[in-house]
Specification:
Blueprint: E1 2-3, H1 8-18, E2 23-27, H2 33-41, E3 45-49, H3 53-66, H4 78-84, H5 86-95, E4 101-105, H6 110-124, E5 133-137
Parallel strand pairs: 1-2, 2-3, 4-5
């Protein structure tokens, strides 16, 4: 199960390819149609609720607690952060060190958390000698 976020379309596509049912919680009338279309195109079950992103996330957490077969795939899942941190490793491997600045989108802060985790682990292991300045950006009106 995922909640409206940056990985909504990709997440539902990957699950469809693997034959896994994907349910997506979205705030009714408050999601970009292009993003919703990607999920629908891949057969995701769309559940619209009266509320905002935080309400969707709260419901998703409750459902995952009540039904252990449901896995959350957004920023509250520590396995997602662990897996995504390797993207920071790839950046360092290509550049030879951490960049001076790394700017990326944030919604619920999963992206920036994962990259920061990767950079700090490489720094602690002595692979890099500096940490980047992290800049999180978010579109106006997002997650209302």
């Amino acid at each position: 199960m995922c909640v409206d976020g940056q990985h909504l379309g990709v997440g539902s596509g990957v699950r469809a390819r693997a034959g896994i049912t994907c349910a997506v919680l979205v705030p009714q009338g408050k999601i970009a149609m292009g993003k919703l279309a990607q999920a629908v195109m891949h057969g995701a079950k769309i559940i619209q609720i009266d509320g905002n992103f935080d309400d969707c996330l709260e419901l998703a957490r409750k459902m995952a607690t009540d039904f252990p077969t449901i896995s959350l795939v957004n920023s509250v899942n520590p396995l997602r952060i662990q897996g995504q941190k390797t993207a920071a490793f790839e950046i360092v491997d290509v550049l030879g060190n951490a960049p001076d600045v790394h700017a990326l989108p944030v919604g619920n802060a999963g992206n920036i958390t994962a990259y920061w985790k990767g950079y700090t682990e490489y720094h602690a292991d002595g692979v890099i000698d500096k940490l980047p300045r992290m800049l999180g950006t978010q579109a106006a009106g997002r997650h209302r």
